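[retry 2/3] Glutamine--tRNA ligase: previous attempt timed out, resubmitting with same input.
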Amino acid sequence: MTTETSNAPNFIRNQIREEIEAGRSQKIVTRFPPEPNGFLHIGHAKSICLNFGLAEQFGGDCHLRFDDTNPAKEEQAYIDAIKEDVHWLGFQWAGDIRFASDYFDQLYAWAQHLVKEGKAYVDDLSPDEIREYRGTLTEAGRPSPYRDRSAEENLDLLERMRQGEFAEGEKVLRAKIDMASPNINLRDPILYRIRHASHHQTGDKWKIYPSYDFTHGQSDAIEGITHSVCTLEFEDHRPLYEWFLEQLPVPAKPRQIEFARLNLNYTLTSKRKLKLLVDNGIVDGWDDPRMPTISGMRRRGYTPASIRKFCEMIGVTRADGGLVDIAMLTHAIRSDLEDNAPRAMCVLKPLKVVLTNVDADHEEVYEVAGHPARDDMPVRRIPFTRELWIDRDDFMEEPPKKFFRLAPGKEVRLRNSYVIRCDEVVKDEAGEIQELRCSVDFDTLGKNPEGRKVKGVIHWVSASHGVPIEVRLYDNLFLVEQPDKDKDADFLEHLNPESLVTVQGVGEPSLADAGNEDRYQFERVGYFCADRYASRPDHLVFNRTVGLKDTWAKMQKKG
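[retry 2/3] Glutamine--tRNA ligase: success.
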């Protein structure tokens, strides 16, 4: 697979190109390092496309490494889901999957090295005391009273920590750097914590686990990573990243480069808050189609190509560009499906139409293109019968002037078929419309009627041949652009009560052959995907991916 390029800015790609042209870099090695404590979301997709894309473009390698340093929050299910997401997006990591836990022995040896060099010590302060001693952005920190323990005592205590002799929180190992540093990350950061937790890769071997800051750079060095690409919140951690690399006998010196993370409006990307939605049953799991997870977007009908295209469109910069309009994302999938999704007719709000001048056993079958611009797609066979379903929204008893659909005494064309006229409206005792009685102009198949214009075209399905379909109409999960903007408010207050509306529709017969994740354009309605779990031959379920209206494309034309 070749990574798409565009005119969108990508300063990291430009830097690497300059390095290679100047002979400062040979083979580049990047990595995607997720923590296996949740499912990947659209923000991770940007990082995946960036790291794997750079490796592809410049003939390098990209590693998949799980930063698994907190076993209390990690699960094998997350590991499996992350692997599947990366593959589904179209990328392949170099070599075997790597885990930070693969390097725990080496990291421990390097921790001992720092202790021997007088650059790390075991601290007995409690977590609250450590925070208090660390100081603030305007006040320097204070040294721990345990900071000047001898190397011998620290080595002994560290080993006893590793053996599980102490309780969680009783002791930590800290680097000895500078408690007065203006960068709080350099004020004797924690290297190891005691955790009596079984690890999904190492079992019960370890009773202490390294911090992310201590693990990350050294893992990069062990793997020969050349460019350690991360988001801007790690910029203040870079001096610490580099300090470890300078103090330890590492085999390589990776370079950390930060870029602006993706902030998408009407969306949350906090793993903690997404997990809250799952745990509270607000959504139906991590892969609920309303979730911004890669698996949720896949289930909703997004394609790998559309997500990669979106990530290329938004570019890679160091400047925080604020909120990205979700219309860019829907534009990317709409453009992809416009070109690649077969067409079908599906009525979401069925209203019966009886064609009074058509015999009860009459049946015609139209052969219609699967896609108007694709000869490679199979044709659809659409039966035309006396009784049809049309959408209730395509009929009005008292229509406004520019309503070009069906109304009493008015004509409309059935897509790919005849022009019909509404002659009678049948209601029940409560005054609710039950069916329409219409007549067909048989001289209008494939041509305009004589002496009059019919502007409206509506979709329809044969009542006797249509297949029942459960249609899930998904919308944004939140009603406001930044649901967690106010840190003091509950983001759940902004949930959209109509983020999922389920209707029982009727589809044309070709939809009975839909496989899981098959995508279609339901003509005049939008783009839909056969649900990968709920859809069965005897119970078809389609999820709405996106409507037909493209607001982003219109905005670009205006610009």
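[retry 2/3] Glutamine--tRNA ligase: The CA atoms of residues 27 and 59 lie 7 Å apart.
[retry 2/3] clearing retry counter.
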